[in-house]
């Protein structure tokens, strides 16, 4: 059987299968068939390529020079960022707005409220993540967040932000030890907003109270944490042990060394892990000296972002597909499970109806084609094509 005129042949091994297949896409962007490799030359891919579901990144601060923390942020910048993310296989994503003044947060919430009036954009971005401002003021747990803008939880302020975002806040990250955090969690949950624990120095007892109040996620577990902690009574064990908490993790192998990532996955189980990038606007830019939230940093050729003159991490340049591959390479997860942790599991957690699955006949083309290259730092991703909602984005 030969492909009809106008069809595209995509060749590669579907994640979870043993042999390569040919995926045929018709001129309307629908998958017409998935079949054994034929004699025709593929338009995209090869027998060495992989075909995988698209991804859902729940924590994006910016990328490709576009900074969501910029007070000059405009809709055009966000549209461009969304297109660039789609070219990297990100079919859905959650913008993260970090600790800032109330005026700044209100301004950026209004930008996204305007954008989310567009049904096409809303199909890609289900809402906003507020990372702060209700976090620990302490050095270490606070991370790179500006200390002068850290404040105690205020439901009155949150209601203003919620209104400015036209209700489009998916989840908020806070420190459970802050004064008023527990009633705040209950109030936010009553609005349908999910609550994550992060950038905190909470005791196991404070974590337990926050979970009882409705917190269900750990934001980038293992980061936003004091560099030295008690070996038993610390924020890590309590969050790892509580099966009601799903953990998001940054799998760039910089924020969490491979043995730590492996242990986290074993303790939580793949069904309670969300792989995210926590990517900042320096991702995709040439290596060199930059500023991040007003602080001098260096983007190294390896992708590691450090405070200038130090080896201290200062943000992530990870593209999520690489994180998925890293997780499969360094933990007990299969590649198929790792893709679920960056697609199906975060979608289910946030109640997003979008599906993240392999191509099936009759469905719009919605998958990534990539190869893996061996390097001194492990398997590196080379994206050959990205199809999102029936359109080729790369």
Supply the number of structural domains. Answer: 2
What top-tier CATH class of the largest domain fits best? Alpha Beta
Q: Give the rounded overall mean pLDDT.
A: 96
What is the percent of helical residues?
Answer: 25-40%
Q: What can be said about the biggest beta sheet?
A: 8 strands, parallel
From the helix content, strand content and strand pairing, which structural class follows? alpha/beta
Beta fraction: 25-35%
Strand order of the largest sheet: 5-8-9-10-11-12-13-14
- Approximate shape: globular
Number of strands: 20
Uncertain parts: none
Question: Which architecture of the largest domain does the CATH hierarchy give at level 2?
Answer: Alpha-Beta Barrel
Our measurement of the CA-to-CA distance between the termini, rounded to an integer number of angstroms, reads 28 Å
Could you tell me the CATH topology label of the largest domain: TIM Barrel
Query: Helix count?
Result: 11
Radius of gyration from CA coordinates: 21 Å
CATH homology superfamily of the largest domain: Metal-dependent hydrolases
Account of the protein in words:
This protein has helices spanning 75-87, 102-115, 119-124, 155-164, 181-190, 204-213, 235-241, 258-268, 320-330, 335-340, 344-350; strands spanning 8-14, 20-25, 31-36, 44-53, 55-60, 62-63, 66-67, 90-98, 128-131, 169-174, 194-197, 217-218, 246-250, 273-276, 288-292, 295-299, 305-307, 367-375, 378-388, 391-392. The protein has 394 residues and is of the alpha/beta class. The protein has two domains: 8-52 and 356-392, Roll (Urease, subunit C, domain 1), CATH 2.30.40; 55-350, Metal-dependent hydrolases (TIM Barrel, Alpha-Beta Barrel). It has an eight-stranded parallel β-sheet with strand order 5-8-9-10-11-12-13-14, sandwiched between helices. Strands 3-2-1-4-18-19-20 form a seven-stranded mixed β-sheet, covered by helices on one side. Strands 15-16-17 form a three-stranded antiparallel β-sheet, with no helix packed on it. A hairpin with a 2-residue loop joins strand 18 and strand 19. Helix 2 (102-115) packs parallel to helix 4 (155-164). It is globular.
């Amino acid at each position: 059987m030969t492909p009809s005129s106008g069809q595209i042949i995509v060749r590669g091994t579907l994640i979870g299968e043993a042999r390569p297949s040919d995926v045929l896409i018709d001129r309307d962007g629908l998958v017409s068939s998935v079949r054994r490799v034929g004699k025709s030359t593929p338009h995209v891919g090869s027998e060495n390529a992989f075909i995988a579901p698209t991804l859902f990144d729940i924590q994006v601060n910016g990328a490709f020079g576009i900074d969501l923390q910029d007070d000059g942020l405009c809709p055009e910048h966000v549209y461009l960022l969304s297109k660039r993310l789609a070219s990297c296989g990100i079919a859905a994503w959650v913008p993260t707005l970090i600790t800032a003044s109330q005026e700044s947060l209100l301004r950026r919430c209004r930008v996204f409220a305007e954008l989310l009036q567009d049904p096409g954009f809303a199909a890609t971005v289900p809402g906003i993540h507020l990372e702060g401002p209700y976090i620990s003021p302490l050095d270490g747990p606070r991370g790179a967040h500006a200390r002068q803008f850290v404040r105690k939880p205020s439901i009155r302020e949150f209601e203003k932000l919620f209104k400015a975002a036209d209700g489009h806040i998916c989840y908020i990250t806070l420190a459970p030890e802050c004064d008023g955090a527990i009633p705040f969690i209950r109030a936010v949950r009553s609005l349908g907003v999910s609550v994550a624990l992060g950038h905190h120095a909470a005791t196991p007892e404070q974590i337990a109270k926050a979970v009882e109040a409705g917190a269900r996620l750990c934001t980038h577990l293992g980061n936003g944490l004091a560099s030295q902690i008690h070996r038993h009574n610390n924020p890590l064990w309590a969050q790892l042990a509580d099966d009601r908490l799903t953990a998001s993790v940054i799998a760039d192998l910089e924020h969490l060394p491979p043995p730590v990532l492996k242990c986290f996955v074993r303790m939580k189980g793949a069904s309670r892990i969300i792989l995210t990038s926590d990517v900042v606007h320096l991702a995709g830019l040439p290596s060199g000296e930059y500023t991040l939230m007003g602080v001098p940093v260096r983007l190294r050729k390896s992708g590691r972002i450090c405070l200038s003159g130090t080896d201290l991490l200062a943000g992530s340049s990870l593209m999520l597909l690489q994180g998925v591959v890293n997780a499969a390479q360094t933990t007990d997860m299969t590649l198929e499970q790792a893709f679920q942790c960056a697609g199906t599991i975060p979608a289910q957690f946030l109640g997003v109806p979008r599906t993240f699955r392999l191509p099936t006949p009759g469905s719009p083309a919605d998958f990534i084609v990539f190869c893996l290259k061996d390097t001194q730092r492990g398997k590196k991703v080379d994206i050959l094509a990205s199809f999102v909602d029936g359109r080729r984005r790369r």
